[in-house]
Amino acid sequence: MTGGESTAVHLVPVVSLVAADSPRLGGLSQEHVEVLAQRDIEPVLVHRDTLRVVDGMHRLHAAKLRGEKVVPVRYLDGPASELFIHSVAANVSHGLPLTLKDRKAAAGRILASHPGLSDRAVARIAGLSPKTVGAVRRTSTEEVPQSEARVGADGRSRPLDAARRREAARAFLAEHPDATLSEVAASAGVSISTACEIRQRIRSEERDPLPPRPGAAREARNGNRAGSAGTLADDQQGQRIETLAKDPSLRFTESGRALLRWLNKRAPDLEAGQQLMAAVPAHCAVAVAHLANSYAREWQRFASALDQAVSDTAKP
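The structure assignment produced for this chain is given below.
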């Protein structure tokens, strides 16, 4: 999702706000409105461009019930096409919980409007399991347009036919060995980093041809999903970060949240490094490699210290 919430609070006339496109199939709960009317009204989340309520219809009606002329508002910036997604995500995380039926229906709407989102990304938005979202997608296949790519929970787009595209890049390089990485990427619909990896693999095979070993064909089909020895594939990295993010000892402590933010910022580094590899001049390669090895050793020391801490904890 794009855009972001403002932290500033503004007082806005109640009559100027537009009703939300709510994910609640049963509409508002009058009982909940009356409960909120007895409390201080928390800011309502409103789309800045359209003044449509994104989150807080119960609070808005509570303010009306109290006879308030203005209501505190925080603005959300971003495209109107994503308002429903923001509304679902907000109502899943706090306030009066959405029912399972509400969340499944919301997932169906999100899949219809954003078919490129992965099951895991929609699951995080709607508070469902990826398996449930997959079932919703399958039951609505005829209604939901199918995309050739999926945008994951990390915001990155991955083609569904990655293996076919990698083969197309190989074929293009075989016919055009002097083509630039940008030309290879554009011809096959792959990223520049993938085009660089394929070119390096072809050159390695030309220098040192080896007979195929067991499992090599499967690794080639897996393409981008397979990492170098000892590394995690992109989806495994995402799963582990998600698991850590759910741990209360991290979520509800300032130091834990700082660690999660730091890990999330590091996640794109490997792909960025692959993209930058093509830009390293030959005479700078040794210096860059030394720096990369130095950073890798620091990471290894960090991992070894954590492993030792786990081992010490496990000792009786």
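Interim note for the steering committee: DSSP finds 15 helices and seven strands in the chain. Residues 285-314 form the longest helix (30 residues).
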